[in-house]
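Practice problem: predict the structure.
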Amino acid sequence: MNTLKYKNLLSPYRIGNHIIKNRMIATASMPFVNLGPEKYPNESFIRNHIDKAKNGAGIVVFGDVMAPNRPERPMDTMDPEEIMQFRLNNPNEFNPDKGWLANSGRPIRFDILTGACQNILSNMVEAIHFYGAKVLLKLRVESPRGFDVSSGNSEDKTEIGSGGAMKRGRELTREQLMGVIEEYGFQSVLAKEMGFDGVYVHMAYGGPLTARLLSPLTNRRTDEFSVETFENRTRFAIMALDKIRERCGKDFITYAIISGEEPEGGYTEEDLIEFAKRFQGHLDMLHLKGKRNDLSHPTGFTKEKYPFLEYAEAVKKAAPDLAVVANGGFNDLDDAENVISSGKADFVGMGRAWICNADYGKLAYEGRNEDVVPCLRCNRCHVSSYYRPWTSVCAVNPKWGMEHRMHYMLKPSEKKRKLAVAGGGVAGIEAALTASGLGHDVTLYEKSDSLGGLLKLYCEASFKWPYKEYLDYLLRKVKESDIKVLTNTAATAELIREGGYDDLILAIGSEAKIPDITGIDSMDVTYVADIYGHESELGRNIVVVGGGQAGVEAGMHLAELGHEVKVLEKFQILAKDAPPLQFYSMFKEAWENTPGFTGITKAECIAVSPEGARYIDENGDEKTVAADSIVIATGRVPLSEEVMSFADLGIRIHTIGDCHLIGDIQTAVRSGFGAAIDI
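Answer:
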């Protein structure tokens, strides 16, 4: 008998008459940018959720939906004109002239009142059940427009995360609250009719009414829903949960997410414990999240690896009748197993783990933690950048967002080929691993003494620890493979010709872009990639010219080492190329709280000298900032001339990574994967 390595994580759990086959929950995540004009889930969405079940998830959560066209609805959505007007009044600092909701033609949420949506979701549910998984529908029941739990919340920011102030309006009447409760019941009935096993109720971040009535930050009512007693505070949520059970029966799973605590002035962890005790008997599963929406998606800037585990453990002890879900950055299977075996939680909720690893559950059942691709926690799976194409991507999984197309994009290798890969950075490693896995004979040339390229440099920063885990994973996979690695060997046309290769993949990278700044040719400046490993050679006072993500991260790294750093950025915000959803707010909070780091925006550097840097500020005035060292972080350019030195070999040549198109880890991985399968 082959005993499962992760016998606790993969053990069944009973909720009512439902047997959940294991403790792994694929939480609400999807390639949501992959949507055209359709107002129902397309094949990309459906395939994504079915694959999670196919690969071993015990529970799959699908979200979000709404019933926006219901005549008697107690809530509404904004039409495109209203969205545009909102954007004009509240400029988006990332991209003020291009509203991704207003101009995209995409629906804000799927309308479950339409036959098309119901039909497609019903078929998706049937397919998920085929693989023995349970599936829950994430409800989106909102307040009537222009109303809130209490009046005077117009400047409130407790929809905490990336949204900012939300205009709420007048206090809801009791009758209106009862209407919202009825809506919970109505939408849950629709979910049950479509075959869903239960529903996911949002009670986190101070956003929906269920959360706002719990919180002293937003609730100033004086009726039976006030915050004067715990009974009053939890009354609305319990009534909504009871309505779902009344309409759908006790064997319809109710699953809720809640913040473990709120920012200062809000409810505390002790309050959470009291809430959880009161939810027993009304709720099946409780999923613990962070104080804010953004913090619930941990990044490298998060000090704890699993920052919300303490909430789950506390609720598990205090409310034993609730099935408790731990969440927040779980990817490592050993860690997930420990959570269950130690009794800290009953389930582990994972979103990005299934994005980075489509076969995550399969790896769990096979006990292959070493093959789990680490998540960079970069959150490019939300929105990669406002300045990038509108596609759903994962930095380390080149297939994600394109799973529904893989059946015709992937092609079988016609015969084994002898292949050279020039350049041992991320793109080159991905290409070599993929090609070797397809059975080709692969030789990897790297001009330095070790693999990793720019990645191995950037891993020096403390907040880049997820990237270090990924680099270690790549190096381990190369070591385990049949790839012949030649370090300290720069690929040349002569070497490739002598090797008798059938194909050449060029991943030779890029070089620093030299900006048009007076004095830069006569100054001993340092380009950003060259600071790592040489930080002590720089002076105490440093000016970084270029405030994109790379420049800001370099500045933070240097400041952490004791330097005084000023970053000059010509645009209105720092790191405008960083992922805008969830990630950016945590990134900004991190640099603002790094001693010795100062960002100066709307500052165009015009000259550098031994005394420092001169720049033009937003008013057109010329200013100087003193510096002992100048670091240039104004981007990179492909090594296109070096690429052309291989042009006359007479064999097929593929260019990938930065030597093809300047990008990041995501573009490097996808281009390396694409080139390898195209051989």
